[in-house]
Amino acid sequence: MAMQLFVYYRIPKADIAQGLACAGELIKALEGENLGTAKLYQREEADKPYFTLMEVIEPAPVQSKQIADFCEKVQELAKRSFSTFENPPARHTEIFSEVIVGAAKPCA
Fold it and tell me: Which superkingdom is the protein from (predicted)?
């Protein structure tokens, strides 16, 4: 079953170039270590002093079988990738598993 991690965090508008560069380093490291693939999305918060970034990470098949370990590896890569920030952004991770339509069981 395919899994995806959705990682949300905020970057001050003044630091967005640095934040995007750090996120790019994280994605390169993730893919370079054959841990999985990722895409990066951003949303400008018009009335806020920050952008919201979201990484959508798909673990490599072997990694999705040990998701807790995989999440730890991602956090370590993020810690290294965002080390240039004086106060690295807090990251919120949500994990979703693919649902095969027709095979899903209804909620009780």
Answer: Bacteria
Whole-structure pTM value: 0.85
Per-residue H/E/C for the chain: CCEEEEEEEEEEHHHHHHHHHHHHHHHHHHHHCCCEEEEEEEEECCCCCEEEEEEEEEECHHHHCCHHHHHHHHHHHHHHHCCCCCCCCCCEEEEEECCCCCCCCCCC
pLDDT at residue 1 tops 60: no
Q: Which amino acid is at 6?
A: F
Instruction: Please give the tally of structural domains in the chain.
Output: 1
